[in-house]
Structures are given as C-alpha cells and as structure tokens.
Write a structure and sequence with these properties.
By secondary structure, the protein is α+β, with helices and mostly antiparallel strands. It has 10 helices and 9 strands. It binds 3-thiaglutaryl-CoA and flavin-adenine dinucleotide.
Length: 387
C-alpha cells in the first residue's frame, strides 16, 4: 500500500478520534478560508481580521482551557494539531491563535483571580476581546530579566511607564498583558488598550509575517487599578511559563509550513520537464525531497511525544526548547530548499515556499531565538549556564 508522503510513519494512527476530528476541521478551514486569500494578504501586508469570528466559532481560541470559561477543553495534542494546520496556511494565522491562547488567555487562567477569569476568558474565547503580550523591549528581547518597563504603586493603582517592541496583535488588541518590573519583582498587568497613556504603533516594512500585525507599545504614566494586576505570580517565571505554552504550540506549527512547502515542491518536481524528464527523476532532486520527508517525520514524532508528555503533566521546558529549535530549523531549511526546487517560479507568492521561508525568519527568532534554545539544551546537558 502506498504511504502518505506527508505522514510516512502513519503518525495519524497514534491520534485519538477526537484529535483526528480537530485536525480535519482545522485543515478544512485552512484549505477553504486561508489558502485562497493568504498570498494576497501577505503581499498587501494585511492580517485577515475577517477570519477572527470563524476561528473563535471553531473553538480555536484558548482551546486547551476548561469549558467553564467558554473554552473547548481540548488536550495539548489537539492544540498542537490546530497550530500545525493553521501554520500550513500561514505562520501569521497561527501566531494570532498562539498569542491569544497561550500568551494572553493562559496567564489570565493560570495567574489571574477568579473575577479576571470570568471577566475576560469567555469573551476572549468568543474573539470579542483580543489580547497582545508585551514582554520584549527595544534594548533586547533575549534577556527579559533586564526589563526597563516598570510599574509603581500609587494608592490602590499602579502607574506603568516604558516600552515594548515587536508585539504581535498590538494594534488589533483590546487588552495587553504587560510584564513590568515592580518593587516586588516582575509582575503582569491586564491593560485595556484604550487606557490613557497607552499607545500602539504598527511596525511597517516587514519582509516576514506580513499577514500579521506587529507593533511597538508605549506606556506613558498608564494608570491601572490593582484589580488589573495578575495576583498569582511574581518574577520571570510568570512570562516564561506562558512562553513554555506558546513554544510548545510553535513546535507543531512549522511542521504544517514544512508540509505545505514539501507538497508543493514534490508536485512541481514531478511535473517540471527538463532534459526530457521530470526534474523529480534526477537523483539530486529526489535526495532533497527524501530528506524533507525524513525531517518532517522526525519532527512529527518529536512533537507528538512532547504533546503526550504535556498531557501527562511531565513536559519540561528544556524538552520544549529542543523541539522548538529542531522543528523550526527543519521547516526553514525545507522552505528554502523547496523555493530552490521551484526555480524562478519559487520567488513569487503564487507558490507558498518563499512566503513560508520569510515567515519562518520570524518564527526562528521569536519565542526565544534558535541560539537561546540551543543554550537551554546546552545548559541541561552540561550543567553549566552559558547565558
Ligand atoms: P532564570 O532566571 O534561571 O529563571 C527564572 C525563573 O523562571 C523559571 N523558568 C521557567 N518557567 C517556565 N517555563 C520556562 N521555560 C522557564 N524557564 C525558566 C525558572 O525556574 C525560574 O523560576 P524561579 O521560581 O526559580 O524564580 O531564567 P533562565 O536563565 O532560565 O532564562 C534565561 C533565558 C535566556 C532562557 C530566558 O530569559 C529566555 O527564554 N529568553 C528568551 C525570551 C523570549 O523567548 N521572549 C519571547 C517573547 S514573546 C514572543 O516572542 C511572542 S511571539 C508570538 C507569536 O507571534 O506567535
Ligand atoms: P536580541 O535579544 O537582541 O538578540 C540578537 C541576537 O543575539 C540573536 O541572534 C540572539 O540569538 C543573539 N544572542 C542573544 N543573547 C545571546 C547569548 N547569550 N549568546 C549568544 N547569542 C545571543 N515579543 C513579545 O514580547 N511579544 C510578542 O507578541 C512578540 N511578537 C513578535 C513577532 C515578530 C514578528 C517578531 C520578529 C518578534 C516578536 N517578539 C515578540 C519579539 C521576539 O520575542 C524577540 O525578537 C526575540 O526574543 C529576540 O529578541 P531581540 O529581537 O531583541 O534580539
């Protein structure tokens, strides 16, 4: 029996019926709603906001959070498959869902008060309130411990000053989860984006993640009440805990981007006739395609096992770092190689590899650069901190 080139080890057979159903419904959404428009969105530098209600109606926002907050209550593997199928469309669509789910809803769920959960989570699951996550600052994102943005107590309020940089959804969001230095260490605040003193400025001229909104945030004496502070976490482990959730999803997403590029390159290579035969008949091209299939298979196995560890409650941040490093590197290499197999045709957005390759330049940088994740793994295996 012929094998599925995008699932050579029949990893789908390891999924539950529910996980397969989630994957199929998101795959359908990507095929029918994302793929027909995404090349134009990328070219125009436009995030397709019109998809938000459908994404919400499918239960993709905060999908792993409990049903009592209006969320789908899915497991970690299902969340991973959602990321994979969305990023098969475009990293920008997956980014939107990652930020809303893992970086905004998750901290409200994990570190927020019950009132905050009730106030925000159901509306965020419905897509009526969109969030952004402000951790990175202009002077350097890899070292968030060196944060300059600060919040000072003023009676029952807090006054926030500072700036954040490269913030996904910044100009789309109604609330920002803002991490700020306080007298008691780093704390998180839910800041409505219409609060006086808050400004979001969209970043233009991007050559990557063009179908996503990226912004700089400025805080000029932004006053929020203590009820807007996330009460149940202090210190860098707050934002890093959110990053672990989002990075987990990002280990899956690039598998989708890689599958899209691999599929397009394979079809093209079978049809493109040069020297009187398809270019796929050349050993040099087959080696490239076989290597893509090998690397995709390994990444799929890595993420599935990571998801099973997550669902068992034993997943460790170092494991997430290794998988983020491996899977994003796998995808960016495949996207570039696929672009090459398409020759000149590969440089236009008529074909997906160049768009994915450019997007993956962001994915390999955000949520911890490749080097940061290599050093996390290096620290684990040597016991020596190289940061
Ligand atoms: P260290 O000072 O040792 O630890 C501080 C505390 O945090 C705990 N911790 C973690 N907790 C949960 N998850 C993790 N991954 C954690 N890593 C550390 C740690 O146990 C400690 O807790 P405690 O109780 O002892 O205080 O910090 P470190 O040396 O581990 O961190 C250094 C380093 C470089 C790894 C870290 O700063 C880092 O990861 N830097 C990269 C920053 C980053 O990834 N920024 C991403 C910004 S958000 C983003 O990019 C969104 S893009 C989204 C999209 O559009 O899809
Ligand atoms: P820097 O930290 O300045 O790093 C520059 C270079 O130095 C990198 O190559 C890095 O690997 C290297 N380096 C740093 N430290 C070391 C070391 N110790 N040893 C060796 N090499 C080192 N942030 C958010 O908070 N929220 C968001 O929603 C968000 N969305 C983003 C969306 C996009 C499209 C992009 C591009 C970024 C986004 N980010 C977001 C920011 C992202 O997390 C940061 O870009 C990333 O953490 C790296 O920070 P930096 O850009 O300041 O690079």
């Amino acid at each position: 029996m012929a094998l599925d080139p995008t699932d050579l080890f029949d990893i789908r057979s390891l999924l539950s019926d529910e996980e397969r159903a989630v994957q199929d419904s998101v795959a359908r959404f990507t095929n029918e709603r994302v793929l027909p428009i995404i090349g134009d969105c990328f070219e125009q530098g436009r995030f397709p906001r019109e998809l938000i209600p459908e994404i919400a109606a499918m239960g993709l926002l905060g999908s792993s959070l409990p049903e009592q907050y209006g969320c789908a209550g899915l497991n970690g593997v299902s969340y991973g498959l959602i990321c994979q199928e969305l990023e098969r469309g475009d990293s920008g669509i997956r980014s939107f869902v990652s930020v809303q789910s893992s970086l905004c809803m998750y901290p409200i769920f994990a570190y927020g008060s019950e009132e905050q959960r009730q106030q925000y989570l159901p509306a965020m699951a419905r897509g009526e309130i969109i969030g952004c996550f402000g951790l990175t600052e202009p002077h350097g994102g890899s070292d968030p411990a060196n944060m300059k943005t600060h919040a000072k107590r003023d009676g029952g309020d807090w006054i926030i000053n500072g700036a954040k940089m490269w913030i996904t959804n910044g100009n789309v969001a109604q609330i920002a989860i803002v991490w700020a230095q306080t007298e008691d260490g780093i704390q998180g605040f839910i800041v409505p984006t219409d609060t006086p003193g808050f400004t979001a400025q969209e970043i233009h001229k991007k050559m990557s993640l063009r179908a996503s909104v990226t912004s700089a945030l400025f805080f000029d004496n932004v006053r929020v009440s203590d009820a807007q502070r996330l009460p149940n976490v202090r210190g860098l482990k707050g934002p890093l805990g959110c990053l672990t959730q989002a990075r987990y999803g990002i280990t899956w997403g690039p598998i989708g981007a890689a599958i899209a590029c691999f599929t397009e390159a394979t079809e093209y290579a079978r049809q493109r006739i040069l020297f009187n035969r398809p270019i796929a008949a050349n050993q040099a091209v087959q080696l490239k395609l076989a290597d893509m299939a090998r690397r995709i298979t390994l990444a799929q196995l890595l993420s599935l096992q990571l998801g099973r560890l997550k669902d068992a409650g034993t997943m460790q941040p170092t494991q997430v770092s290794l998988a983020k490093w491996n899977n994003v590197r796998m995808a960016i290499d495949i996207a570039r190689e696929a672009r090459d197999i398409l020759g000149g045709a590969g440089i236009t957005t008529e074909h997906c590899p160049i768009r994915h390759a450019l997007n993956l330049e962001s994915v390999i940088t955000y949520e911890g650069t490749e080097t940061v994740h290599q050093l996390v793994v290096g620290r684990e295996v040597t016991g020596i901190n190289a940061f």
